[in-house]
Structures are given as C-alpha cells and as structure tokens.
Amino acid sequence: MSQVILARGGGFFFESFNQRDFAQATGLDVQFVQDNHSRSAKGVLRGLHYQIQHPQGKLVRVTQGEVFDVAVDLRRSSPNFGRWVGMVLSGENHRQLWVPSGFAHGFVVTSDTAEFLYKTTDYWYPEHERSLLWNDPTVAVQWPLNAAPHLAAKDAAGKTLDEAEVFG
Question: Which residues are catalytic?
Fold first, then answer.
C-alpha cells in the first residue's frame, strides 16, 4: 500500500492514504468524514472509546513517537465478541490499523510523546460516546505498562464488558 520515499539531503514523502489501494487491500469501500490529531505524553492511556450510535470506523496511525494500539470487538453477534487485538504503531514503522465500527479503540503512549492521527467514517457525537474500562478483567488487554497509566476521568469511569452498552 503506502511507501516512504527518502529524499536526498534529508526528509521524506509518505503517501498515508490512497482510497483505491485501501479498497483493494481490504475489500472495503469506506468514506472518511473527519480527521483527528492528538498529542500525548508517555504513560497516557486513551480509551477504550466507541460510539453506541453513529459508530465510527477508524484508520489510525502515529506520525511521531510510539503507542500500543488496541481494538476490542463489541459486536455481540461476532464470534470474537470481547476479544482484543493490539499492535505497536510508530512514526518509524508507518503501520496503520483499521478499526471497524462496532469496536472500542484505545492506545497507550510508550515513547516520551506521540502524535496520533485517525480518519473516521462518521462524525463525533459526544452524547453517544462510551468508554469500555481499559483494565476490564474479562477483556484482559495486555497493556505494556510498568506503572499505572495517566487516564482522563471518562476513561477511569469506563464500564466493564458486562455493564457496557454493546452492538447487536
């Protein structure tokens, strides 16, 4: 899909998204409506977020630093309900993760700082946003943490999988 082209004298060019290549690689024909960019410090954990109405598919990547990125399947009808997948995304490895609608998403910053970008298939509706508890023992995400993470109030107050509103 994407490739990095190094320029003489320093610098690079990186095609971060190509609709045709994305559709060919995934079999998905999605339309992105919003781009988001955040910066966080080491040990900050964001998530696990989702929208119960207007669910968002997300294409996520890191442009600077490194994060451990996680997606949790919240589709009750899925054979993978409650299971998670995680991967390291960094400004150096240029990896991206597609998080389908119906999944909770979050990340923890493992470098000093990280800049995180994501494209979404629907707009943000704060009244529909929910948080799955980052350390729910049923989901049991294996976060690469040496100390307690720094959490926003909404993330600290997340619901367990048993309590959370989920998708059909």
Answer: 49, 118
pLDDT, one tens digit per residue, over 79-132 is 999 999 999 999 999 999 999 999 999 999 999 999 999 999 999 999 999 999
Exposure of 109 by Cβ count < 10 A (0-12 exposed, 13-18 middle, 19+ buried)?
buried
β-bridge partners, 36: 118
Query: What homologous superfamily does CATH list for 31-156?
Result: Jelly Rolls (2.60.120.10)
pLDDT one-digit tens code per residue, 138-166: 999 999 999 999 999 999 999 999 999 99
Cis peptide before 28 (omega within 30 of 0): no
First to last CA, the chain: 33
| Total residue length of the chain | 168
Phi, psi of 24 (to 5 degrees): -65, -40
Output the DSSP codes for 63-127: EESEEEEEEEE-BTTSTTTT-EEEEEEETTT--EEEE-TTEEEEEEE-SSEEEEEEEESS---GG
For the chain, the structural domain boundaries read 1-30, 31-156
Q: How far apart are CA 114 and CA 35, in angstroms?
A: 17
